[in-house]
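Late entry, evening session. Most of the bench is empty. Finally got around to the prediction I had been postponing all week. Sequence below, unchanged from the version circulated by S.P.
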Amino acid sequence: MIYNSQIYELFIGDSRRRRRHKYKADKPCTEIRYAMDIHELVIEMKILERRLTLYEEKYGVLSADFYTALTAGRLARYDDYDETRADFSRWKGIYETWLRRKRAYDAQLMQRDVVDSLRIQPAY
């Protein structure tokens, strides 16, 4: 348990990309969790989609089809090529991150209505 004015660290993000944040606890707490807001998830998913598009255009297949073939072991013949192996590794990582964000987005959207999630900004 964390008590008054203790400094502690909380790691945020997936296992490959951890960001370290320090927080100061003003009162006792048992757990602090960080959940991305729906808006943050949408922005990050769009950024990831732009990165996925580069690989889709380069190799001529959609990311979902690539991921299915890769996890089924049907792309083993490309392991001999360094550039392809590096690209496939990055592509797989980006797609898996996109899938995690998509699952988090869907889970949050099931908990509340789309109307409640809309961010309306006034037009000036």
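Two things to note before I forget:
The chain has four helices and two strands.
The chain has two domains: 1-31, 38-116.
Will write this up properly tomorrow.
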